[in-house]
Write a structure and sequence with these properties.
The protein is α/β, with parallel strands linked by helices. It has a domain of 95 residues: GMP Synthetase, Chain A, domain 3. It is built from 13 helices and 19 strands. Helix 2 packs across helix 6, helix 3 packs across helix 4 and helix 9 crosses helix 10.
Amino acid sequence: MNLYTRLVSGLIFPWQERLKRHDSPRLRRQMEASQYWPPERLETLRLERLRALLSHSGRHVPYYRELFSRLGFDPSGVAATADLRHLPFLDKTTIRAHTDALKSEQARDLARFNTGGSSGEPLIFFIGGERVSHDVAAKWRATRWWGVDIGDPEIVLWGSPIELTSQDRVRQLRDALMRTKLLPAFEMSPEKVAGFIAEIRAMRPKMLFGYPSAFAHIARHAEEHGIRLDDLGIKVAFVTSERLYPHQRELIERMFACPVANGYGGRDAGFIAHQCPAGGMHLTHEDIIVEIVDAAGRVLPPGESGEIVVTHLATRDFPFIRYRTGDVGVLDDSPCTCGRTLPLLKEIEGRSTDFLVARDGTVMHGLSLIYIVRDLPGVRQFKIIQESLDQTRIQLVTDAAFDPACLAGIEAGAKARLGVDVRVPVDLVETIPPEKSGKYRYVVSRVDPNEAGHP
């Protein structure tokens, strides 16, 4: 770590956080100690924090005060984190219906957030300073696992309007001090991508942060145009907010000559897990209780796939208790070779809308169709849209190397997986635009896999 990075991480950034009344520097130091605690000590901490969250919610949050009264639920009687299963789930529909009642009566200076969601209907919720401090600390800790720190030169490739509409002079000064450059991921035209590559080469960042699809797109462009990215000294590429596919990881690591560190979380659910250099996807165990549930809401043991449900312990201002993320994953009960005792997510299989449902009700991951089109010569982009059980549409952006004779094979391969009677129109299009957030989604299913018994 050079002198300037030490100045930023040790003085400038903590000073900024104090001005914001955030406690992230102290929390990060605590978390760097607790990541090696014995599991029993970690569980004691989590139980104490869970009781505090539930007690506060029962006293000061109208929605939970009424819910606990109706259920006869006493937070002081919670003897284990597993006792959460006595409470109902919190889902997006409930938050939309009870947004004001979910605010703590003691909350001050709440920040309004929203997520677009796969349905296009935004979820509006609120976050307080406690939650922000904990999420910043968790991300900061995970960043330092890779030998980089706040203050090292960083390229951020992002599409959230929250970041991209805040480029005022104060933010520009802050980014300059932190040596962070924000690039908008909304448009990935060849001209834009060439400009991004030029900026990355000029800055020579130590780390990248953004969507895996966006960095894979840049890497592919550089490869096709013979532009080197492996001579810049980049130490790590942090990717998040989308499913990371194996072919994306391989391409990014090969072209940028650095490891890819996968991160999992969201504005709503918090900073849930991050990959360490040994490969383990560690949960932010001090802050978040993760349950894996089946379609009936039953909690599943490690090793079984189901919906990821989270309770964020730093959300007293607007509680997220047993929040259904809509994501599908698997917990792991094996330790990581890195020595950290934070438990692991074995797999993050994607959103429930990343799964396809065959005509006979069989649920399969979108990779089953992705493999059909991904490696065909001349396919530059693709998107698979399951419109109903009877029709799945495939969009392709191709170049001169694409053989139109492949279209029949694509249709036949999809029918072999989805059902011979399923219609599979294959559309050749000029471009496939990203979502409003700037993310790219390879698979979108409008068929609910839960109705077919998944997750």
